[in-house]
Q: What sequence folds into this?
């Protein structure tokens, strides 16, 4: 019996001595979201991986994960606490030798923005529980939440009417590059339209007959600078502009209208030159704009006046513009009129404060559109 007790005491002393040699030295930690870009309220998984690379067990680990403050969990979890703008999620675990522990926790975030998973602090105890050591595992894993499209019937009604008007203009504007043939001169055509070679052959004045413009083109201009009379930026107004920008881009995608994107909003992270996207169409073009809207801050890269000047330098004949701004600023109306003169096309100004106030008071339906190829096939 004495020998057994002696061996037991020696084993306990050995285990205690070994466990005091920094129990977290060979423990690794990682945490990341299952998706890097999500819709507001979309459920994703938080993947947590803790691994013990030692040949001996670790009897006790207390883990405090630093997560985004706006996280919502789908099930009950240990009591969380808010600390320095982050959510601290505590938990305890026991690791066997060479064990890798993986946890999949469903969660969601409802507010647009850019969020980070900052890592965790792990606390390890010795075999007898006499001492505790801690180690901070730094991470910077990113999650971008996209803006939700503004659900405003009045906005959709006005936008649908505007897009219908520019679709009609497609058959009014002529493309001087595409010549279909020749017709008699009526006296109303400009002199440059006269074909002198055909006139010489026929013995009478003939003018070129052009094809109509084949491609519609729209530039979406997003302004985040509020009125000069307003003190400071209003985050809620700018958030409405982000939601309106998504609704506009979705409408253009649905109708197959090519569109470019121009903004003075600052995009955080590695978005490159997000302030300008050339004309395009399709899911890749659309989600590039959406991710930029998700990363966008309330800081401007230039003034609204400079933004309109930049749009004027890029303006082309027949190109329509949709301007999204927090408030309608009358002092910039002459610049908008000049932009209309340069393009010969229409301009739609969407002020966030106006649609925010009226979206529940004036219900309307979106203007009808032509069915897509998939919809015709189903019919």
A:
């Amino acid at each position: 019996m004495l020998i057994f007790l002696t061996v037991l005491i020696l084993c306990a002393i050995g285990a205690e001595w070994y466990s005091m040699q920094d129990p977290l030295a060979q423990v690794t930690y990682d945490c990341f979201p299952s998706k890097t870009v999500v819709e507001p309220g979309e459920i994703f998984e938080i993947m947590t991986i803790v691994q013990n690379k030692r040949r001996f067990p670790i009897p006790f680990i207390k883990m405090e994960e630093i997560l985004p403050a706006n996280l919502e969990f789908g099930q009950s979890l240990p009591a969380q606490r808010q600390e320095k703008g982050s959510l601290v999620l505590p938990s305890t675990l026991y690791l066997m030798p060479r064990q890798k522990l993986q946890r999949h926790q469903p969660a969601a975030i409802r507010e647009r923005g850019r969020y980070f998973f900052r890592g965790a602090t792990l606390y390890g105890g010795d075999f007898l529980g006499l001492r505790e050591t801690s180690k901070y595992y730094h991470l910077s894993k990113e999650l971008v939440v996209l803006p939700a499209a503004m659900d405003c019937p009045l906005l959709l009604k006005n936008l649908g009417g505007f897009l219908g008007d520019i679709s009609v203009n497609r058959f009014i504007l002529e493309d001087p590059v595409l010549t279909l043939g020749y017709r008699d001169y009526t006296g109303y055509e400009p002199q440059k339209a006269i074909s002198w070679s055909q006139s010489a052959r026929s013995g009478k004045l003939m003018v070129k007959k052009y094809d109509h413009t084949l491609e519609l083109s729209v530039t979406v201009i997003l302004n985040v600078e509020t009125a000069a009379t307003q003190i400071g930026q209003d985050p809620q107004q700018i958030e409405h502009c982000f939601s309106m920008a998504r609704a506009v881009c979705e409408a253009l995608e649905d109708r197959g209208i090519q569109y470019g994107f121009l903004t003075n909003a600052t995009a955080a992270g590695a978005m490159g030159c997000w302030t300008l996207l050339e004309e395009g169409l399709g899911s890749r073009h659309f989600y590039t704009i959406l991710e930029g809207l998700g990363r966008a801050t309330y800081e401007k890269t230039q003034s609204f006046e400079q933004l309109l000047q930049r749009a004027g330098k890029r303006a082309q004949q027949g190109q329509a513009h949709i301007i999204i701004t927090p408030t309608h600023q009358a002092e910039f109306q002459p610049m908008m009129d000049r932009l209309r003169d340069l393009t010969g096309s229409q301009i739609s100004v969407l002020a966030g404060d106006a649609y925010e106030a009226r979206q529940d008071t004036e219900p309307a339906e979106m203007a009808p559109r032509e069915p897509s190829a998939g919809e015709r096939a189903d019919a």
Q: What stands out?
A: Residues 170-175, 357-379 have pLDDT under 50 and may be disordered.
